[in-house]
What we know:
This protein is α+β, with helices and mostly antiparallel strands. It is built from seven helices and ten strands.
Amino acid sequence: MPTQLTIKLLQAEAPNFAKIExxxxxxxLFGVTDGKAVGTYLEHKFQASLQSRYTYARGNSARGxxxxxxxxxxxxxxxxxxxxxxPFKSARQKICGLGYSLLVFVYDxxxxxxxxxxxxxxxxxxxxQKEQTADFQTTLGLRKLIGNKANRxxxxxxxxxxxxxxxxxxxxxxxxxxxxxxxxxxxxxVSNALQWRLQYSRVIEQAGKVGGILRLV
Length: 217
């Protein structure tokens, strides 16, 4: 019987996969510049590796994330522009976090014209716990305001300055919540859009240095 996949097993398997894949020459991606195609290739290969040895519920577009039972989503990005998109649910994600953890593979792609194949050198494999998936500047700013004895109006003004996509009722509710329970510092850069744009430069810099950002390899 296959073993039930856990977060610890996932964290152990990810760097093993990264090490093996970084040495693999892949002809089908030679000359490919589409980051989405590269990400799809790596994700499917990682999932196939896991499914051969573990049992788990695999996510789909309806369930939103790759490992719904574990509360983890895979993000694959190039070191040259470490970012990806993410479904927008509400503005509170920018303050309170996405609501799930991230397993981030950061690769550098090298094409070899002699072999007509490429290698995907996975330079960073990082696990971001869900508590640290909010926006860095937003959470840092809120904590500074609260440390300086901000009131509800100060928090609402801050929301307006940062143009957070929320209506007045949601803003007031969230301001009260923030005052009662200041947010954890997040380490993503989360840009406002119809889909969140997540940027990982700070995560790469801080992995292994701060709580909740684990450098797996």
